[in-house]
Design goal:
This protein is mainly alpha-helical. The protein has one domain. It is built from 9 helices and 5 strands, in the order βββαααααββαααα.
Amino acid sequence: MFSWNADPLAVTIGPLSIHWYGLFFAAAFIAGLQIMSRMFVREERDKNDLDSLLAFVAVGALVGARLGHCLFYDPAYYLSNPLEILKVWEGGLASHGGVVGILLAVWAYARARNYPLLWLLDRIAVPAALGGAFIRVGNFMNSEIVGMPTIVPWAVIFERVDPLPRHPVQLYEAAAYLLIFAVLFLAYQTQDMRRRRGLLAGTFLVLVFTARFALEFYKMPQAAYEYGQFLTVGQWLSVPCVLAGFWLLYRTSRGQGQSAKGR
């Protein structure tokens, strides 16, 4: 086991403070933009569309993740103090809310630019898994979302939290998402996989949120009202995501949403 006491601040320049979490959050979008750019070129889509798509997704992810945190994990406080919802810089983002925000943003973008919704979701699913890995590393740098106390040899003592050795569950989750990214990336290389609309998005939802459900058993409760419950808030929220993923996979297996041109 080893001790961890990294400063959440990566760099301070005068009044400007840049957190590690912010850097990894930005890195997730930069990496996603690069991957999507190659996809658009490969499939003869207009790369210029990516700038507006990135703006839609970034706003959707941030707003959705913030509202998800406020409404799912501490609704009593934020509903009593609604202006606190705006203080994103103080931390508090929920991945489930981020997924909902991204879905709504992509839906709005697809309608505005006349793109097939499932075509877009399939492509976004690939870098989204990688982005999830980046963000969990950011959580590790912040010593947040810590795991349960344990005696395993690789346990980490988060000195900013307490002196107990704990599961580095943020790194477990990052590793799981990195593996899922590899699976989706390889699947995308196959033309048949690209043509079956909903396949990559459905696989993303099933794998990511099944991993999230399983790893929640190693996490400390994130909401005060979770204590004493068998399932956490994160697990309850993961169930509909997994079911939605299976629905997309079922739909694809029935031959619905096939694209003859793979576009």
